[in-house]
């Protein structure tokens, strides 16, 4: 396994405050044999803390590791307010899958194993699933639920905002066929790689939050997810309010999700 390389640099932007840390770290992925950039946001009082929870916050299609801090420049304030380390990986347009057709795309393995191990080894984290949560927007909303449900030994809580929680109605969109193959000839693969087909894996205790704007093109699939979770008697928080698939919605919705995860971490201290 190649040596993990740490590159620390302060993001030179107006959102950086001297009392807080916003780092960019480069992590070597052994599974993909490549280096991946990640933003790590530390609370202002990080040096005085131990056993801190970590929230893995995932970007959407077309985004990268810096998308969330650019979208929500006051994330460091929330990291301090809630005493949480926020980790934003770069996953290109992978949808956070391990591709069944391209062995060079293994972002499920990267986030759920390699990155978590790196963060636990280099930061003062609580090294238990009750100290980890994962969520994101759009493609990252799919990723938050995909990773949270499939790796309940790693993450104790998961979420999605404006998430593509059922990919099958969108077979020609967002480069998904580059990761899964064409839908027409790989329908079983697509079925097996959608969040809607993972619900049977959910065990009691996994904390779940889902939200989506009523005018979002993903609203219908989120409504179906909510109803299916209710049918299966799976506990979850579901928020539906006016909004579309845009930054204005996400900068608001992430504050509700941060509060949700804060209460989860607090309950499991």
Structural commentary:
By secondary structure, this protein is of the alpha/beta class. Helices cover 32% and strands 19% of the residues. The chain has eight helices and eight strands, in the order E-E-E-H-H-E-H-E-H-E-H-H-E-H-E-H. It has an eight-stranded mixed sheet, sandwiched between helices. The two termini are 34 Å apart.
Secondary-structure element order, as H and E? EEEHHEHEHEHHEHEH
Q: Oligomeric state of the chains? A: single chain
The strand line-up of the biggest sheet is: 1-2-4-3-5-6-7-8
Largest sheet, in brief, is: 8 strands, mixed
> Span between N and C termini?
34 Å
Q: Which overall shape is indicated by the principal axes computed on the Cα atoms?
A: globular
What's the average pLDDT? 91
Query: Approximately how much helix is present in the residues?
Result: 25-40%
Strand content: 15-25%
Rg, rounded, reads: 17 Å
């Amino acid at each position: 396994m190649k040596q993990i390389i740490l590159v620390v640099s302060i993001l030179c932007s107006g959102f950086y405050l001297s009392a807080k840390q916003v780092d960019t770290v480069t992590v070597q992925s052994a599974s993909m044999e490549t280096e991946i950039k990640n933003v790590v946001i530390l609370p202002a009082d990080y040096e005085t803390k131990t056993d801190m929870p970590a929230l893995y916050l995932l970007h959407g299609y077309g985004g990268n590791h810096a998308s969330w801090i650019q979208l929500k420049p006051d994330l460091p304030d929330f990291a301090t307010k809630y005493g949480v380390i926020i980790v934003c990986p770069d996953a290109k347009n992978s949808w956070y899958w391990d591709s069944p057709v391209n062995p060079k795309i293994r972002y499920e393995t990267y986030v759920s194993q390699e990155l978590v191990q790196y963060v636990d080894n280099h930061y003062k984290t609580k090294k238990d699933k009750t100290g980890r949560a994962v969520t994101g927007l759009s493609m990252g909303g799919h990723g938050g639920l995909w990773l949270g449900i499939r790796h309940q030994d790693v993450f104790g809580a998961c979420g999605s905002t404006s998430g593509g929680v059922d990919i099958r109605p969108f077979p020609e969109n967002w480069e998904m066929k580059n990761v899964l193959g064409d839908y027409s000839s790989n329908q079983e693969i697509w079925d097996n790689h959608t969040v809607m087909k993972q619900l049977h894996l959910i065990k009691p205790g996994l904390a779940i939050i889902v939200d989506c704007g009523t005018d979002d093109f993903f609203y219908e699939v989120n409504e179906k997810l909510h109803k299916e979770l209710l049918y299966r008697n799976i506990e979850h928080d579901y928020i539906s309010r006016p909004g579309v698939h845009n930054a204005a919605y996400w900068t608001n919705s992430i504050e509700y999700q941060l509060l949700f995860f804060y209460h989860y971490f607090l309950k499991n201290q």
